[in-house]
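Colleagues,

For the teaching module next term, I've prepared a clean inverse folding example: a structure given as tokens, and then the sequence designed for it. I'd like students to try predicting residues themselves before seeing the answer, so please don't circulate the second half yet.
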């Protein structure tokens, strides 16, 4: 019996979460596993009502679940940063979800803006470190508002943090077809922080002789994503660069309408979410394609060890897209949110 905490949160979050849960329910029925989904109302609306984003008591409660599913965070009436820091980043940090796993996979039948590249070329996964780097929240401001104003934002790495991330990436690379791991950094400029990354990458790599090691500077990596995405199999990188390159990754796999991610604590509670935001202007209109949310549910199934269910959902997404039944992943698809959810759920049921 799996216990899943569901936080639909803001904007179109609840709409896409509903479809993801619909597909999950069918997959459970089909493969015969049992689960309990408990919904939580954290997000912008609750914050505006109560002034509370994520109380510590809730954090303790969430920590008791097997996994967390998150819809989307961001509310037009809440200052930028409040919900991002108070909900999303707080969960990632407090639950020590030190890996942000982001598959970049082009499904058949999906439009990629990269000319002459297809599903066989665009299939890799980015392992983004998720608790350190520029996200650590260390820094300060001095002489604010004066011409002598100073601002710092610390790019912090620990041996422990870097090593556990790199180790996770090697383990993952080992399970992938090409067994190739690319370290993406800026070691030519960040001669302290990324020197550490390079050193740990080489050291840990000695334990993985079966994994081919590769390296790319982050700026060049952006170039290769567009020019030769087939060069990548597994990528490991720091938090900030991982944030940036995975938005580019999402675009080459068909856009925000299909990109999902997992915030993983291999020893604790992990959380799954679509990469897209809360798209406030489309709230309640039933026009957002829920595939990214469904892909996040697929990752959650995989993580819970429901391999057959995860495989079936992946197959259902792939078959539906290959058949051209979802001509466009944007709001211009002409399809409703629940129609797409029904399509995938039906494909799982028929699978
Ligand atoms: C992401 C998002 C978040 C991040 C924001 C919303 C804090 O962009 O999940 O990639 O920067 O990690
Ligand atoms: Mn991002």
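(Answer key — instructors only)
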């Amino acid at each position: 019996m799996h216990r899943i905490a569901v936080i639909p949160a803001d904007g179109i979050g609840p709409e896409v979460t509903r479809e993801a849960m619909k597909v999950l329910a069918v997959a459970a029925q089909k493969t015969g596993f049992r689960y309990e989904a408990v919904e939580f109302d954290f997000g912008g609306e609750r914050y505006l009502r109560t002034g509370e984003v994520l109380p510590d008591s809730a954090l303790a409660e969430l920590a008791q679940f097997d996994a967390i599913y998150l819809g989307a965070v961001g509310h037009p009436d809440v200052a930028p940063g409040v919900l991002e820091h108070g909900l999303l980043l707080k969960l990632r940090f407090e639950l020590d979800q030190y890996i942000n796993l982001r598959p970049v996979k082009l499904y058949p039948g999906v439009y990629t803006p990269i000319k002459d590249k297809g599903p066989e070329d665009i299939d890799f996964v980015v392992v983004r470190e998720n608790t350190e780097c520029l996200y650590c929240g260390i820094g300060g401001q001095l002489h604010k508002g004066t011409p002598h104003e100073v601002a710092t934002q610390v790019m912090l790495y620990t041996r422990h943090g870097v090593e556990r991330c790199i180790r996770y990436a090697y383990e993952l690379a080992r399970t992938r077809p090409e067994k190739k791991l690319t370290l993406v950094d800026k070691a030519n400029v960040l001669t302290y922080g990324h020197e550490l990354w390079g050193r740990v990458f080489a050291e840990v790599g000695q334990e993985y002789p079966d994994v081919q090691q590769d390296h790319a500077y982050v700026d060049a990596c952006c170039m290769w994503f567009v020019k030769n995405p087939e060069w990548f199999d597994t990528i490991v990188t720091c938090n900030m660069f991982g944030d940036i390159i995975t938005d580019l990754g999402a675009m080459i796999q068909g856009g925000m309408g299909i990109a999902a991610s997992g915030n993983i604590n291999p020893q604790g509670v992990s959380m799954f979410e679509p990469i897209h935001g809360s798209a406030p202007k489309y709230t309640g209109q039933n026009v957002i394609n829920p595939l990214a949310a469904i892909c996040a549910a697929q990752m959650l199934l995989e993580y819970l060890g429901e391999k057959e269910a995860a495989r079936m959902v992946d197959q259902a997404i792939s078959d539906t897209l290959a058949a051209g039944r979802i001509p466009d992943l944007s709001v211009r698809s002409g399809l409703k949110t629940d129609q797409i959810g029904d399509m995938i759920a039906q494909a799982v049921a028929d699978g």
